[in-house]
Every structure is written in structure tokens, then in C-alpha cells.
């Protein structure tokens, strides 16, 4: 395989992931996915050089901008072959806990019930530490995950789903952006006017209802980050426990009326290690730091409060130690991580 072929395959995979997730990848333009080839010429007319088109038909080939697929990708159980190389199966989220993942699989919400099931599973994971096993597979792509991740979905046009009826939508479940025959400028304007995470689900649930669901779960982006961590985990334990999901190391954080746990998806995670130790994982770089139980509790206090004095007070209460000894402990932990380039005081968030 030549380097140019490898580069094209990587770009194709990244573009498809951008279409599924609605999150910008290495593709600078918009990714268009067509249900029917009859609209290909019209989509070509409004595309720019940085856009990528996925359209049915093995004869389309792949020139880096147009990629053909065979099969179907509309209903649960459908399968398609992308560019003759990448096979994907489509599944409904409601069925996800009951299926076996045997290859690359896109899990799509498809309905208000499917979206609610996803949110309820997130609630369960946070309360009990039990995650849907299928979502921990590295072969699974969650549709429209950008809407849950806590990252700014913005006004830009990252993806467009083109239905067989000729509708332009933000993903298969998303807002109507236009119809075949509209100008590109009109699509861009519609995307800007409907910006926000709810745009990806406007076909199946009211925007206000989705916004309310997110507002009541400010930690949802952290749940998505926890899924990513577990999908890539290669530590001594096959599936470690994560503080904040099923309880915290520092008990006061379980009383949400008294203290705020970190909600940022970029805040470090504390996971169980071996021999009673813990591992602090910095999500942005995947760096790992092994900590004893006492140090791990001190780190959690610093992450949650964003304040050294507040962390010392919380640790003293949790450990039953004097304020002076707790203060010295958190100062030492903060300095240790600062020396490693990790500021534990920048991640505190709202009560969640």
C-alpha cells in the first residue's frame, strides 16, 4: 500500500467519523452523505474543494473528495461498504445493550425514545458506575456525539445528510437546513441560524426539550469522556472504576447539596489501579500518574474545588485530619502535578 493510498484511507475514515459524530476532524470542509445517487450532481454543484461527498455507487471510486459506498445505511441492521474497504453496520440505540459488536458499528438514536434511553443510561452510569458494555467497544461510533460532549458545536456546517427525498439535514435526525436546489449560502445561513447541540436531533425531539435535558446534566460531556477513557483503557484492570461514576473517593462530593464535583470533560479522571492505588488520567494527553489512596483524595479535592484552601478544608473533613496537615498535603500534591505540567485548579465546575 502506497503512502498516498494510506493517506486517502485515513482521510476517508476521518471524514466518515466527522459525518457520524458531527465533530470537526481533519476535514476542513463539510461532509455530505447521500441516501440516493440521484442528487449527486446537485450536491456537487454546491460543494467546495474542501468538502467530501459519500454517495451510493461502487463506480464513484475515491478521489479524496467523492467516495462511493455499496449497500444501505438508513435502517437498523443495514450494512454498507465504504470505498470498497470499510464495512459499517447501523444499529438503533434502543437495541444497543442487546447486540453483539462484531465489526465497525454506528449506533444511532433514531427516535425520542432512543435519545431518552441514551440519557437514562448516562444517568445510570453516573449513579452506579455501570456503563453500557457495547458503548465501550472501540468499534462503535455514537451518532451525533458532539451534541453531548461539551464541546462547542458552533454555527459551522460540519456535516449534511441528504435524504432520498432531497432534504438537507444536520445528520439523519437533525434540523432541516434546506432542499435540493438551494444555494450553498442558504445552507450555511440555515446552519448558523440553528446553531447549538439540539440541532442534531430537531427531527425527533423539540429543541427546548433537548436543551432542558442537557441543562439538567452539566456532567454529560464528562460521561462521554469517560466512555472514551474506558474504550482505550489498557491498564491492569480490564474495566477500572472511575471516581464520579458510582461515587467519589471523597465522600462529601456525593452530597451534591454541599459540594460541586468537576463536570468538565477535560478534568483529570481518577481510576482504580492495583494494590489499592489509583491512576490519575489527564484526558487531553492521556498521560497517567500513579497515586496512593491519600494522594488521590487530595487530588480529587483540588480538581473539584479549584482552590487550594477549599481543597484543604474538604480533605480535612473527609480524612478527619487537622486543617494544617490537610493543607500541607494538598499543597504538595498540587506542586507535584504543576511540575509535571498539570494544573489541578483549572477544572472546577458547577454543582452536578
Description:
With 352 residues, this protein is of the alpha/beta class. Helices cover 33% and strands 16% of the residues. The protein has nine helices and 13 strands. The protein has helices at 3-21, 40-46, 112-128, 184-193, 207-215, 220-231, 293-305, 308-319, 323-339, and strands spanning 31-34, 52-56, 66-71, 79-82, 86-92, 105-108, 140-142, 159-162, 167-169, 176-179, 269-272, 278-282, 287-291. Strands 7-6-5-4-3-2-1-8-9-10 form a ten-stranded mixed β-sheet, with helices on both faces. Strand 1 (31-34), helix 2 (40-46) and strand 2 (52-56) form a beta-alpha-beta unit. Helix 7 (293-305) crosses helix 8 (308-319), helix 7 packs across helix 9 (323-339) and helix 8 crosses helix 9 (323-339). It is elongated. The N and C termini lie far apart (50 Å). The relative contact order is 0.09. The model has no long low-confidence stretch (mean pLDDT 90).
